[in-house]
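Hey, sorry to bother you again with one of my protein questions. A protein chain has come my way and I'm curious about its shape. It would help a lot if you went through both lines with me. I owe you a coffee for this, so here goes:
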Amino acid sequence: MIGLGSYAFFWQHSELAPRRLDAFDMLRRSAELDVELFQFCDYAPIEDLSRDEVSRLADLARELGITLELGTKGVTPDHLETYLDLATRLDASVVRSMLFSPTSRPTLVEAEAQLRQVLDAYGDAGVDLALETYEQVSSTDLVSLVEQVAHSRLGICLDPANSVAALENPRDVIARTAPYVKNIHVKDFAFTRRGGWVGFTLEGAPLGTGLLDYDYLLETVRPNERGINQVIEHWLPLHDTIDQTVQLENDWNDHNLAYLRSKNVY
């Protein structure tokens, strides 16, 4: 499936937004765009919902015909168990995470031990745990960790844009991780010269206008054939006003959904 994530509404659920969207609002906006998948990723308010609110959110998703996924940071067992419980109550079959969190930076050996403590529970619940590619951990190390743990419910959330900051070629990251991908974050990106031609800025771009070789990603990972969901995200910088930024965010959602739908056949 093709879907949206909370990063696709980053500015609209931020404190700067003139009308701040909550979790329920984002699901309704997604339904208006005929989207059947939504991922709450690095969205802290999801952890503060009461059990009743979580039940109402799950009910709303079912009513709107939207499949839910979750995203967080860190691999400590207690934290991943918390998200497994939340995933179970939301009927989410994917939890995306990263090795590091604001409070924990395990070595690969430590991360392996932590993951082994929770993966059987994820397997029993039918939930995949997808570790995201990003600049703080090389894609080679991430693949090595997944291969070492060798659990059917552990895989990779592929986001080729993130690894550029570590000087990894996006095509190399795609090829290296392809056999282990369980979830995809789709965002385009481009380099622009900074003022005075001193250095570059790496920021988001509408799909098909930047450096992401999306056709290569489709050819190599084969998400449609393998049933791998694709979640739209943005790196949209703040513009002159928040109103202008929100308008661009909505425009990018329209454009990126149309782009992915033109490239994918489900």
Q: What stands out?
A: The chain is about 40% helix and 20% strand. The chain has a mean pLDDT of 96.
